[in-house]
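P.,

For your records, the input lines for the assembly:
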Amino acid sequence: MTDAVTLAPIVAVKDLRTAFGDNVVHDNLNLSVQPGEILSLVGGSGSGKTALLRQIIGLSEPAAGSIEVFGRNLHRLSPIRRRLLSRRWGVLFQAGALFSALTVFDNIALPMRELRTVPERLVRDVVLSRLAMVGLTAQDGRKRPSDLSGGMVKRVALARALALDPELLFLDEPTAGLDPERSDEFVALVRDLHDQLKFTVVMVTHDLDTLLALSSKVAVLAQKRVIASGSVQDVLRVDHPFIKTFFLGERGRRALAPLMPEELLHGKS
Amino acid sequence: MDAFLSSSPPVAGSDPVRFSGESCRISGDWSVQTLASQGVIAEREQAMARAQPHTRWDLSHISRLDTLGAHLLWQAWQRRLPDHIRIKDEHRLVFEKLAEQSDEPPEPAAENRLTAAVIGLGERVLRGARHGGALVVMLGQLVIDLGGFIRHPLRGPWREISAQIYRTGAQALGITALVGFLIGIVLSYLSASQLQTFGADRFIVRLLGVSITRELGPLLAAILVAGRSGSAITAQLGVMRVTQELDAMRVMGMSLSQRLILPRVLALALVMPLLVLWTDVMALAGGMLAAQVQLDVSALWFIQSLPDAISIGNYFIGLAKGVAFGITIALVACHFGLLIEPNTDSLGRGTTSSVVTAITAVILVNALFAISLSGVGL
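Structure tokens returned:
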């Protein structure tokens, strides 16, 4: 399906099972993310996209199966090693998850200050260049998260997620709650930063435009597992009701028009 | 540890900064994974401080460079690219980006009813047991964190502690004074009429002194603090859950118990005995006032006979109770705060159960004190 894979995957999920009480969300789920990829996870509501993301970043434990990030099984590491490992990734939460008690500046500075080894003037310089990188000014740094617009919250959250130059970035619904213009801006920002900093991205999204603009690979979650994974074109060839409705509904046709094989667009429906 | 952290193995046997004559060779890993180790930044800064304006820099052997490393070099170069430099193109780009940035002055910035009832009862018992278990775990974690705090006091959450002391202590002075004063008056008033019947007016000092310092003062202060600060702590932690702030802290590898629970418990353990003392004073003042009006006991005489009425044992029992109550309230409040689900309904219920449980727990602890110290100081 994808190009021949030789590199060790950055994230490898094997035979994962997730259950909330009697409700089984994932069963025998397999997924791997290669270095440099931008992987989008899509799936219907309740298909467990966010649950999967939370397990990959170690916020919740799987019922069975293994999750390896950077080649380490997260759920078997000691808390200290886990903490060290967690410096190598950044997470952008859906609602930003900025610390409301701190200013924008302090929010971005926090991951560095937490290291307790970086002198304050260096922290200050790095934070200012992070702010500039996501298109904010030093004045914005003095604001409180409650004073920010939705788009700015996302930018600050992205700056914080990138504070330690992570090799792996998790985005949970990066454009949810943004108007189309802001969301295009945000997508362009992530794409530029990806070109510049060369990190790997795992993203959960509902938004087709975001998905098409950013992802180099798509994984579709349905029926408790990954039913298809590969480029958008590859995924489109898989015959599954969810893929049909998600990609080939009215919105999907519009967004996909440039990419779509002729027979799918006009042929036997 | 370094090999664990960085994906590229460190270059063995070469200094990251090496001077030879007029030139300086920068090599190895200049990313946060290496720089985060204790002392690395200071070491490299010191090494680079030897550089002169005409030093020839060779950066072509850097294996990894990120923003932090780039800024470290940038500061060593006084914020401009040196005149003589050998550097990979990709790294030159990074510094050109830095040069573009303005140097703004930064600010500091359905069952049958019987079985349902039995099941309900069982569930309640199990839930109670789970809460109890979780509290014990939390207490254990607190002791571990306290050990860490004592070993590295400079890394402790001092700001958080002092903020909590102000919020739970200083700001509670008004309400505890008012309630203490009024209860003192009421107690003195009621006892006075009884004592008058027996002609035992003079015992008012002993009666008020012992009952207030040993029982009423600590209990009053604890109930007020449980209502005031206990609910505030629960609600604050609950909201942090709602806004995913707790998740964010965990993702960054910050210990919740060290950052949130320890400062609150320490602050309340410190502040409660002081509040107890304050409440005692106000209640005795109220009692003294009422005694003067009702029994014609002069204030001067009242104050003079207090030291004989209150034994030092009673005084210390009151203070010890304050410490125990403070810890109890903070632990219960934190426990319920961390249990809150990310929705507003759960926040309300959690806050209520926190206050109710804290007050019940305080009264239970008080009973333990009463039984175990029944022979002391009376």
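Two observations worth noting. Chain A has a mean pLDDT of 85. The CA atoms of residues 24 and 239 of chain A lie 24 Å apart.

Regards
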